[in-house]
Write a structure and sequence with these properties.
22-stranded antiparallel β-barrel, 2 helices, about 5% helix, 5-stranded mixed β-sheet, mainly beta, about 850 residues
């Protein structure tokens, strides 16, 4: 097995090969161009068509920094869901799980990455669109991908054409439309860890102007970390199924109506949360000054109490170096289930050569049921008596409880309607539109303990060991608010939110000359959001309103924004385009359902200044795109996360505040594609991102126990300072027909990042390689062909912690005192390792 230095050298070599290919120019091309070489018959790099401006344009002539991944590029990387792009295929695009769970994804671009958009009243910072429809929640985003034509990653604020919550950019997934001709393809494959996949994509012949396309997808992988408890689900398991039907109606040459319905089910389990170390900060009773490393950011404790730090339970394993194949202690765990469904109708009417009218109508829903026991004995509550102790407790009648089981349910429904007018009058291109969005979300959550420790004692009554048993949980009469996950449990929280958004927008591009293009646009948005807490800490707020001292207020707020943009683009030549762009965006405010007072927070706003160039050279065999930007964000929404203990129960407390001052985000993005000889394509991409949030004075609104009068540093999560990606694609003809032997190899590097807003502690850096070899387009007669392939992800089995949580190795957050910090539940950092090497074979039959 190659060491990391050797693997890094391979990545650097791939990038160097691109830079030193026979162009001898200091100009290159983008990973956008992974789509380019797929166009048959093109010499060099082909044209890439995108819809970032609501019209079809050539990528290189579109003054927006963006990346495009084609069907072939996704297949080469064996991307079966969005989470497979978390390895850094597009360096400025960051994808992570929320906590260890695969049921909800956190997606960021250019340093706009929320820690917890997992709440009904919290919004994302990057807009996710599927066939032009905005996805209101991050739940269900990890479902199986259907027949995707391309994925467009639009970088930087897209507030004019795409709307609120697109501060960092937009990720647009475009599905393949019906062709109206009989044909399709069927694929099947198998891999390690019990992996298997099958999908079918069938186009039916057009009848009376109607064309139909059917897609079906199945993806499965067994757990990569085993659960020792018999009959219980392991970790990093998934089983995905999906169906999609699309109908295209073309009654006349000027009218096209596309209707689609999709339904998907994603069964999954979290990544295993390992204990990475034990009391790494040397916490002990005494003065804070004598234990300087045992400091919780944002506090000014004078004393540390509640110790000594409890010893590890027998059987608990500390492993911060390698991914565990089997959990140390078995725990109850069911698979989490996400169900998504939706209807979309897009009507296009070309009224005249100067105007096309469009209507996009969509109704979608998500139902998520989460069962997450990834931490086991690695997070509080902790078992108290040590070996050799004669302390009472931990008996068969009253086991000492541990293994916090996180249960949650979410139900979301959304309706959206968008009207657009797109066209050209003379030398002016225009887009105008109206947008309406209506969303209703409800959720609930519970965190019972699922395991108990029963002490084994000798004749003198001293504890010599423990037996671990499952304990009854969720035995109360409390009903579930949303679904079955928390039925009968003591409810941590339950909330309900209603959101509406109205917008009108317009954008004009004046083609002043053949070379000079000036674009101005703006969007006016009115957002209204109402929300309530039904339960908090198992108190029913509907029937037992909390005392005034709790400070609970239902959410009832509205915001108005006007987001302008302006771009000046100049075509220096047919192959060199430069631009300067000013754009703005905003993310709506909300309230945190993880607080007992339903603490509200305001929107945040961003201004962006960007310059860039896009170039093709060497007879269209090389492409180089470069962008530099400055973003200033005001009222940044930052999170303070902690586990709070009330009696025998623990609760996830997360306070969102608006950081004063201006958050600075600066970056450079460079992308290169070179096609030095026929069949060989080399790609290299790089993103540099600098972020700085001004220190925040922690006051009574941010700390439950009162003002600490301490300045605290905050960080932007999952955003590496440096990230890079490189790939090599080579295709060589075999025989006299269309058959080709194709090779793909890619490497993706990310510098270490933070996983929490309030902790300087970082995850590990990563370097992941993927590959694919295929014998493609083997003729089988009558226009049919067969492709056989061998693929691998994380080829060198790189092991790194992608999420590191230090909260269990530090004093507890303030609850009643800001001078004394409790270390009663200090254990150690826990975290999640990335997925292991996976590989498999696949066959695709096209007819």
């Amino acid at each position: 097995m190659l060491n990391r230095f050797t693997r890094a050298t391979l990545l650097a070599g791939a990038a160097l090969a691109c830079l030193s290919a026979p162009t001898l120019f200091a100009q290159t091309a983008t990973p956008d161009a992974t789509a380019a070489a797929d166009t048959p018959g093109d010499a060099g790099l082909g044209e890439i068509v995108v819809t970032a401006t609501k019209r079809e344009t050539n990528l290189q002539e579109t003054p927006i920094s963006m990346a495009v991944m084609s069907t072939e590029a996704l297949k080469d990387r064996h991307v079966s869901s969005l989470y497979d792009l978390a390895d850094g295929a597009v360096p400025s695009l960051r994808i992570a799980t929320f906590e260890a769970r695969q049921s909800a994804l956190t997606i960021g671009i250019r340093g706009i990455v929320p820690l917890d958009a997992n709440q009904p009243a919290r919004e994302q910072g990057v807009g996710i669109y599927v066939d032009g429809v905005y996805m209101g929640r991050q739940h269900g985003l990890n479902a199986a991908l259907f027949d995707v034509e391309r994925v467009e990653v639009l970088k930087g604020p897209q507030g004019t054409l795409f709307g609120r919550n697109t501060e960092g950019g937009a990720l647009s997934i475009v599905s393949k439309a019906p062709t109206g001709e009989w044909g399709g393809r069927v694929e099947a494959g198998a891999g390690n860890y019990g992996g298997r996949n099958a999908n079918a994509h069938i186009n039916l012949p057009s009848i009376a102007g109607f064309s139909v396309k059917l897609d079906g997808v199945i993806q499965h992988q067994d757990a990569t970390t085993k659960n020792p408890m018999a009959g219980q689900a392991g970790f990093n398991y998934y089983n995905r199924k999906g169906l999609r039907a699309a109908v295209r109606w073309q009654p006349t040459s000027s009218i096209t109506n596309d209707f689609s319905y999709d339904v998907a089910k994603d069964e999954n389990t979290p990544f295993y949360s390992q204990l990475l170390n034990y009391n790494p900060n040397g916490c002990a009773n005494g003065t804070q000054a004598s234990h300087a490393a045992c400091t919780l950011p944002g506090t000014a404790y004078t004393n540390l109490t509640g110790g000594p730090v409890k010893p590890l339970m027998p059987g608990v394993v500390i492993n911060g170096d390698t991914r565990m194949k089997t959990a140390d202690i078995g725990v109850p765990q069911q698979v989490s289930v996400d169900k998504t469904h939706g209807f979309t109708n897009m009507l296009k009417w070309e009224v005249s050569p100067q105007i096309e009218l469009r209507s996009i109508t969509a109704w979608r829903g998500v139902d998520a049921t989460q069962w997450d026991n990834s931490g086991g004995a690695h997070r509080p509550p902790l078992v108290s008596p040590a070996l050799g102790s004669t302390a009472a407790g931990c008996t068969a009648a009253a086991p000492c409880a541990f293994s916090r089981y996180s249960l949650a349910g979410l139900r979301q429904r959304q309706f959206s309607q968008e009207l657009q007018a797109v066209g050209t009058f003379g030398n002016i291109d225009y887009v105008a539109g109206l947008f309406y969005f209506n969303e209703h979300v409800s959720d609930d959550a519970a965190t019972p303990s699922s395991m108990g420790a029963v002490a084994i004692r000798n004749a003198a009554g001293a504890i010599t060991g423990y037996n671990y048993v499952t304990i009854p949980f969720c035995t109360a009469s409390t009903p579930a608010f949303v679904g079955s996950a928390v039925n009968g449990c003591s409810i941590d929280r339950a909330s309900e939110v209603w959101s509406k958004s109205y917008a009108g927008y317009g954008q004009l591009t004046w083609n002043a000359t053949d070379a000079l293009h000036i674009t101005v646009g703006g969007r006016y948005t009115h957002d209204k959001k109402k929300g309530v807490l039904h339960y908090s800490r198992n108190v029913n707020y509907d029937t037992n309103p909390p005392a005034a001292s709790v400070g609970y207020q239902p959410l009832d707020a509205s915001w108005n924004r006007f987001n302008p943009m302006a771009t000046v683009a100049y075509d220096v030549s047919n192959d060199l385009h430069v631009y300067a762009k000013y754009a703005t965006g905003y993310r709506a405010g909300g309230a945190s359902s993880r607080t007992s007072n339903y603490q509200a927070f305001d929107p945040e706003d961003v201004k962006s200044y960007e310059v860039g160039l896009k170039s093709d050279f060497w007879n269209n065999r090389a492409r180089f795109n470069l962008a530099g930007y400055i973003m200033d964000r005001k009222d940044s929404q930052v999170d303070i996360s902690s586990i709070q203990f009330v009696g025998a129960s623990s609760f996830n407390n997360l306070v969102t505040i608006n950081a004063p001052g201006t958050t600075k985000i600066r970056g450079i993005e460079a992308d290169l594609t070179v096609n030095p000889v026929e069949g060989l394509t080399l790609n290299a991409s790089y993103a540099y991102t600098y972020t700085k949030i001004p220190p925040v004075l922690i006051t009574a609104t941010a700390a439950a126990g009162g003002s600490t009068s301490v300045y605290q540093n905050f960080y932007i999560v999952f955003t590496p300072r440096n990230a890079a990606s490189g790939s090599i694609d080579y295709a060589v003809p075999v025989g006299g027909g269309d058959t080709k032997l194709k090779f793909h190899f890619d490497g993706n590097y990310s510098q270490a990042t933070q996983a929490f807003d309030q902790f300087a502690t970082k995850n590990d850096s990563s370097l992941i390689f993927n590959g694919r070899v295929s014998l493609a387009d083997i003729g089988t007669g009558n226009g049919r062909n067969l492709t056989l392939s061998l693929w691998g992800r994380n080829l060198f089995n790189e092991q790194y912690v992608f999420r590191r949580d230090p909260s269990n190795s530090l004093p507890a957050a303030p609850t009643s005192s800001v001078t004394s910090g409790s270390i009663a539940n200090v254990l150690g950092d826990y975290g999640n390792f990335n997925a292991p090497r996976t590989y498999g074979v696949e066959a695709s039959f096209k007819f």
